[in-house]
Amino acid sequence: MSKTTVAPFLIARDEEGQFRITIRTTRFNSQNYPIVTSSLQPETFKSAMAARAHARQQFGAEAGQFTAG
Description:
Layout: E1 9-13, E2 19-28, E3 34-40, H1 48-59, E4 66-68
Parallel strand pairs: 1-4
Antiparallel strand pairs: 1-2, 2-3
């Protein structure tokens, strides 16, 4: 079983070409198996850089906590 965790902030392009942020939280059950919960945020952005800036300002995101999808 892998102990790797997922990046807490996923930035991906939606069907309309806008960028969206998904916040992911990881917790572990009693057998130490990772359970990931995802929450798509309602805001849309014209660029990935704008989405990153918003995540830093609103959620306290730091470098290394992002992944692209």
